[in-house]
Structures are given as structure tokens and as C-alpha cells.
Amino acid sequence: GAVVSQHPSWVICKSGTSVKIECRSLDFQATTMFWYRQFPKQSLMLMATSNEGSKATYEQGVEKDKFLINHASLTLSTLTVTSAHPEDSSFYICSAREGGNEKLFFGSGTQLSVL
Amino acid sequence: QKEVEQNSGPLSVPEGAIASLNCTYSDRGSQSFFWYRQYSGKSPELIMFIYSNGDKEDGRFTAQLNKASQYVSLLIRDSQPSDSATYLCAVNIGNQFYFGTGTSLTVIP
After folding, report:
1. Are the C-beta atoms of A85 and A15 separated by less than 8 Å?
2. What is the pLDDT of residues B26-46, one digit of tens each?
């Protein structure tokens, strides 16, 4: 299957700082990327959908000014958690799909811990 | 409302048995269907996808789709302890994917 690379795998930061997570499609062009967060023993929660070159579409209840998403190229999307707080601690996962391909491939995830 | 329902389990089966996982969906516009496996602390991994009614087999895995009844299932034959994970059902509608809450499977040696 297609490869989606996500970095970093884990990050620990102080409250109030910003954290950037990168998601790259390595062997295909991802016209659409999705960002999820997942709390322990819970299912995936879709945060936003981003299409290359356009603004991300955020799900209800997700603060767009706090979770900044940039999809500047067909192979890279970034999620920046701004002014992180302990309640933002979670497992963040990106996924990507190739244009015309119905399959969705996931990055390896980023475990964020905010102290 | 685009709902995908799964029994959260936990589902326990002995090693070598058949594990049966079920999923129902509410939107008849659903186009394609996926099963993902997620180990604890890891991201989901695609294991099966199916578009048409009927069965699709891949190794020990068989996906079954019944669009009239709006359900999709996953059978795992000769279950192994390494199959112990959470299995997520996903449905594709347009540009969106909708996930169930997952079924936790434990294969007992």
C-alpha cells in the first residue's frame, strides 16, 4: 500500500507552546488529507479535512485558530497545535488519499503530551 | 446522519477459531467499505476493502458486503494471538470517510 509518513512520533511540550506535526505522502500525490485525534480506548475523531491549495474544512467543535492546518503541496500537510494545553494531549493521526483512489492510508501517529 | 455502528466488544475467540466482526451503516449512498486493524498505541492499518455485494477473500480474511441490508462483516479464519487488536469499520461517501467505534478482538492462545 501507499506510504504516509508522520513526524514526530511523539512530542512532549510545555503548556503554552506550539507544536507542529508533519504528514507526508511518500509515493503518491495526496489531493486530500485528513487529521484525526484519538483518546485512549476511543475511536478516531475527525478534526479536519484539507485539500491541497485550499483552506481546511474543520469539524464542528474543532477550533480552527487553535489547530492550524496547512496543505501547501500534494505531498505535505501540517497540523500546528497552538498554545497547547494539557487537555490537548492526545494521539494525533493523519491520513491521505490519492486523487481517484478510494483507499485511505494512515500515518504512524503522533503522541502529544502537554505538561 | 452518516452512522457506522460496530459492537465494541470485547470479542474473545480461541486460537484457531473463526472471528466474526460486524458493522452496519445508515447511509445508502455509501460507496466503498474498509476494515482497518489498530494495535494499541499505533495508527490504523488497512487490511481489507470491498466495493461490491458478496464476499472478498484475502488470505485468512474475508470481507462480506450486503448493501440491501446495509452491513459489512469481516471474518478472520484460523485466528492467531497476533490478530488481537481493535478492528475499525469505515465507509466512504464522496470525499469523506466515516469510522465505527471499533471492535476489540482478543485471540486466546
Report:
1. yes
2. 988 888 999 999 999 899 999
